[in-house]
Amino acid sequence: MRLFVLGASGGVGSKLLAEAAARGHQITAQTRTVGKITETPSVKVVVGSPTDEAFLRRNLHERDAAILCIGVDSIGRTTLFSDTTRALVAAMQAAKVKRLVAITGIGSGDTRGHGGWFYNRVIFPLFTRNRYADKDRQEALIERSGLDWTIIRPAPFTAHTGDGPLQIVTDIPPGLQLRSISRAEVATFILDTLENGQFSHQKPFIGYP
Question: Which residues cross the membrane (predicted)?
Answer without folding.
Answer: none
